[in-house]
Amino acid sequence: MLQVTFVEPDGCRRSVTARDGATLMETAIEHDISGIVAFCGGMCACGTCHCYVPPDWAAQLPPADENEADTLRRVLERRDGSRLACQIKLHPGLDGLTVTVPARQRTP
Predict the structure, then answer these.
(1) What predicted TM-score, i.e. pTM, was given to this entire model?
(2) Which of 60, 76, 77, 75 minimizes the C-alpha distance to 24?
(3) Are the beta carbons of 102 and 77 closer than 8 angstroms?
(4) Facing residues of 50 across strands?
């Protein structure tokens, strides 16, 4: 099991356990993380699992592919470190990952 911390829109820090191989979005949904909506269920189509990954952790992730980059163009409040939680597959190297959830997500 891995530890992941979500900083929710209200500033609350929630540290949760995650399964190796699960996506960050699946983990957020399992633990009822406020602000991760995931309307498309992880299909990289809606952007409602948008989160901010700090630079030190972003360097440990593969870059966004073309599909994720296209979806990220439509999210609200995009900035450096914006990623889709459905595209981040968790593994032991990401144990301790901390991400911030935006204050609002665009609904499809």
Answers:
(1) 0.94
(2) 60
(3) yes
(4) 84
Phi-psi region of 21 (alpha: psi -120 to 50; beta: other; left: phi over 0): left
Distance of alpha carbon 7 from alpha carbon 67, whole angstroms: 26
Helices of type H across the chain = 24-30, 55-58, 66-72
Domains and CATH numbers, the chain: 2-97 (3.10.20.30)
Token pair belonging to 36: 């991760």
In the chain, count H helices and then E strands: 3, 5
Q: How far apart are CA 88 and CA 51, in angstroms?
A: 10
pLDDT in tens, 43-70: 999 999 999 999 999 999 999 999 999 9
Which residue type, as a one-letter code, is found at position 6? F
The three-state (H, E, C) secondary structure of 41-59, written as one string: CCCCCCCCCEEECCHHHHC
